[in-house]
Amino acid sequence: MPGRFRSNNPQAPDDPDAAGAAARAAADGGAEVPWWQQLAEDFASRPEPFDHLLRDRLLVGSTASIDVMVRTAAASMVAGLALPLGYRPSQLRRDLDDARMYTDLADSGDPQRFFAAPPAGVPVSERVPGWPHFRTRDGHCADLSFASPYFPLNASIRDGYLGHRANRTAHARYWSHDDGPRPTIIAIHGFGAESYWLNEWFFALPWLYAFGCDVLLFTLPFHGPRKSLLSPFSGHGFFAQGLAGINEAFGQAICDLRVFFDWLRDVRGVRRIGVTGVSLGGYTAALLASVEPRLQFSIPNVPVTSIADLVLEWQPMGVAVQALMRRYNRSVTEIRHVLAVACPLTYPPVLPRERLMIVGGAGDRMAPPKHSRLLWEHWDQPSMHWFPGSHLLHLDRGAYLMEMARFMTGIGFVERRSGDRREAGERRRGNGVASTERRRGSDRRGPEDRRS
Q: Are 366 and 70 in contact, with CB atoms under 8 Å apart?
């Protein structure tokens, strides 16, 4: 496995039952057996061991324990407040009745059948934010919104889905340089973590801005201002409407992202747009790379790749889901199939491998590293960076920011200019990172990416 850590997964890449083989089968398009069948039934319980130094082993172990505690609390909250609504017997029966519509779309292998292009010319409103945490000297910040044109494909849940009125308005915060248009990065937050101030820090927004990029922080459906008034927590509606609701929420996320994409190009004149995202946002960034060919790059960070398998690892929610599966005599393979229509493993990326990059945490226990590996295999092993931390604690973050900087300059997304502020910022951050890499003999490129 590429990067500072190497995966010791006991299954060989050519094992037909291995997760890697399943991902490659999905990428082949013409494979007879799709990923949701090839992926092992016990994928959720399989470990992803790593080879790393003692110091890193201690770091990984300590950060992973924090993930487990937070994961248990979050899973308890979702199991107690979302499962009773979205997975009650009547809802499950309806989802299973509607499953054929979604499985047929997944079987087609054509993402455009589910992720139809949004209408052109959707008007986007701008207003001055009340409290932008990051204030620029050579640009401005604006809160953006528009009436989402998304119309759920599933008629049986359409009225209920559209009944969440707050979710029918899309939101984002946008930082732009006065001398633009500049290359623009769309950043997508994780589940329940939509706060702009948090994501300014997590995505190192001041650094990206100084690097020469404009940045748009996108708010996922049912999060933040899109949350329904009676929802007990942000993101509740994403998973509280059953399997069909999950598919439609991702359908809306991609639709709304493409509206912002069109606005950036047609109104702001931006020609280079990339996407990154963390966790659920990483999943969405990977999904966008299956749909939007105008993207310059996609960089999922600690992404989820199979939601059906992930929930089985989130205890105690996993126990509740397994009980429901036994009651209705359903396997995880069938659940994967229903959700496959909105899964990045179902479709080949529309971007070349050179424009794809994945960041994974060796100690991640919320979106375990085997999910990053699965996407890495599906994407034909693009650039991959492992860091010695967990889902919540990204240790050595400066190192992967430097790797992202090299990636973006390498594909021509940003152009290095003499005397530009981003050069100085990169040098300041790079000094410590470079010494760390020399000390540890790190190589964050995969074997296929080591070129002279």
A: yes
* Cβ–Cβ < 8 Å for 370, 19: yes
Cα 252 to Cα 83, 107, 150, 429, 440, distances in angstroms: 21, 21, 6, 37, 44
pLDDT digits (tens, 9 = 90+) for 262-315: 999 999 999 999 999 999 999 999 999 999 999 999 999 999 999 888 888 856
Separation between Cα atoms, residue 379 and residue 376, nearest integer Å: 5
Convert the pLDDT of each residue in 87-120 to its tens digit.
Answer: 555 666 677 778 889 999 999 999 999 999 999 9
95: tokens are: 């989802």
The residue type found at 40 is A
Quickly count helices (H) and strands (E) in the chain: 17, 11
For residues 412 and 432, give the distance between their C-alpha atoms in angstroms, rounded to a whole number.
25
Which domains, ranges and CATH numbers included, belong to the chain? 6-449 (3.40.50.1820)
Exposure letters 366-398 (e unless 16+ CB within 10 A, then b): bbbbbbbbbbbbbbebbbbbbbbbbbbbbbbbb
Instruction: Please state the φ and ψ torsions of residue 118, each to the nearest 5 degrees.
Output: -70, 165
Tell me how far CA of residue 10 lies from CA of 42, 44, 46, 48, in angstroms: 14, 15, 10, 9
User: Residue 81's closest CA among 193, 214, 234?
Assistant: 234
CB of 425 closer than 8 Å to CB of 211: yes
Retrieve residue 446's tokens. 């995969």
Q: Which residue, 98, 95, 278, is CA-closest to 199?
A: 278
